Amino acid sequence: MESLRGGLVVSCQAYPGEPMRTPDTMCRVAQAAARGGAVGIRAQGLDDVAAIRAAVDLPLIGLWKDGDDDVFITPTLEHALAVARAGAHVVALDGTSRPRPDGRTLAETITAVHEQTTALVMADCSTFDEGLAAAAAGADLVGTTLAGYTAYTVKGDGPDIDLVGELARALDVPVVAEGRIHSPAQAAAAITAGAHAVVVGTAITHPTTITGWFADAVNGANSVDKDNA
């Protein structure tokens, strides 16, 4: 936990069907992130977690995205235990107020992970109240990961820095800023707001999206030039 303080955690994930969607590729991305100064890695899928744990000597936040329901980030206790056993130091799971597929409460799930493994638990939340509830349920870390990604929250262009600050002031457990952090300045703003650590994924590890940002900017500039011609 302490080794993450004030640092950058890099989320090494690729979407299904993409060229980079292999454990070996994600492992290499994680190794590159470690060389660049990351203090931790966040990874999705049991094979990815196992591969990265074996190759990268950094704290590893693991998760398992599964299912088509609203709750799909490590949705059940069985998923959480599998992630821990695959090698994750921290199990990230849905920490929202929505019903979990296995019928367990968030507190029941967190307690079972603590009792049956040595892993810590990070609750991915979307609101201030969810963050408070997750900490009360026993979460070791609270993340703003799902802010803007639930039906009852609004998705902004950038990270929800206000939520980071509110949770950091209210909670005794570490708050992790995550979600739509697309620039070094935004990452620094999250730390200034009180985040224990910052997770950045897309802006570092998703070439398809990054290429799209540049392509859109170039195409936009071309359109302006043509209009002025």
UniProtKB/TrEMBL annotation:
Short name of any one Pfam family annotated for the protein: NanE
Superkingdom, taxonomy of origin: Bacteria
Pathway: Amino-sugar metabolism; N-acetylneuraminate degradation; D-fructose 6-phosphate from N-acetylneuraminate: step 3/5
GO molecular function, one term: N-acylglucosamine-6-phosphate 2-epimerase activity
GO biological process: carbohydrate metabolic process; N-acetylmannosamine catabolic process; N-acetylneuraminate catabolic process
Broad class of enzyme this protein falls into: isomerase
Reactions it catalyzes: an N-acyl-D-glucosamine 6-phosphate = an N-acyl-D-mannosamine 6-phosphate
Gene3D superfamilies reported in the protein's UniProt record: Aldolase class I (3.20.20.70)
InterPro entries named in the record: Aldolase_TIM (IPR013785), NanE (IPR007260), RibuloseP-bd_barrel (IPR011060)
EC nos: 5.1.3.9
Keyword Lipid biosynthesis belongs to the record: no
Protein role: Converts N-acetylmannosamine-6-phosphate (ManNAc-6-P) to N-acetylglucosamine-6-phosphate (GlcNAc-6-P).
Family in the record: Belongs to the NanE family.
Protein name: Putative N-acetylmannosamine-6-phosphate 2-epimerase
Organism annotation: Knoellia subterranea KCTC 19937
